């Protein structure tokens, strides 16, 4: 059974929902299969978001006293499985944080199902989601370039200290088809959203990108870039590098100094 909770109301965090009664994790309504220990771990961490749970607490919570297993290995395995399910990373966590020498905690960005979205801590103020860049083009390689630009921008932003960036695996299935960027941002639990559109004109690629404030839907930054694509990989790298260069000064973060600047070849030309 799930860890004891004061309420049986499903808990929502970002695009995920956890049923505390059934120990079921869902992503945008679709169930994600978790093994017993991983679901028990999530339930226990969600019982008190922000509270550090020691490995000894997890040992007593997840296994009966009569169980004989390699607890350290089993805990590591459960944490890894849970992070995989949530598209989370130990080095840049959004949900499950390792507190060195102490244990683990669930980063307190949660809301009960049906409630209004509200920031629940300083982490949420400095957070951004890069939504998949879209392209209506049917040219060969259009989807590849869109994916490359999106993932490269995410990789570049993740190098900025004091900024929480949603992983590509978390956002890759998100679409704006039935929602505004502001609505998606609130659903994901971030302060800012980056969106982009690609337009092809023969071998020329035009990119329109925006940074949007989730609080009121206003545009913080916008740019239109033009690049001739002789090599799709180099084209995507150049465009992503230029987007990062222009985007970084506009991010809502106390510190926007990148740990390592993305390597760029030639800067794409902004449209006149």
Report on the structure:
With 272 residues, the chain is α+β, with helices and mostly antiparallel strands. The chain is built from eight helices and 15 strands. The chain has helices spanning 36-46, 55-62, 71-86, 122-125, 142-157, 168-171, 181-188, 232-247; strands at 11-13, 16-19, 24-27, 30-32, 53-54, 96-99, 103-106, 111-112, 127-130, 134-135, 164-165, 192-201, 204-213, 219-228, 269-270. The strands form three sheets. Strands 9, 10, 11, 12, 13, 14 and 15 form a seven-stranded mixed sheet that branches. It has a five-stranded antiparallel sheet with strand order 4-3-2-1-8, with helices on one face. Strands 5-7-6 form a three-stranded antiparallel sheet. Strand 1 and strand 2 (16-19) form a beta hairpin. Helix 1 packs across helix 3 (71-86) and helix 5 packs parallel to helix 8 (232-247). The longest helix is centred in the N-terminal third of the chain and has 16 residues, at 71-86.
H and E string: EEEEHEHHEEEHEEHEHHEEEHE
Mean pLDDT, rounded to whole units?
Answer: 80
Q: What count of helical segments does DSSP give? A: 8
Main sheet properties:
7 strands, mixed
Q: Please provide the count of β strands.
A: 15
Helix content: 25-40%
Anisotropy-based shape: elongated
Provide the structure class: alpha+beta
Radius of gyration: 20 Å
List low-confidence stretches.
112-125, 253-266
Into which percentage range does the β-strand content fall?
Answer: 15-25%
Distance between the termini: 61 Å
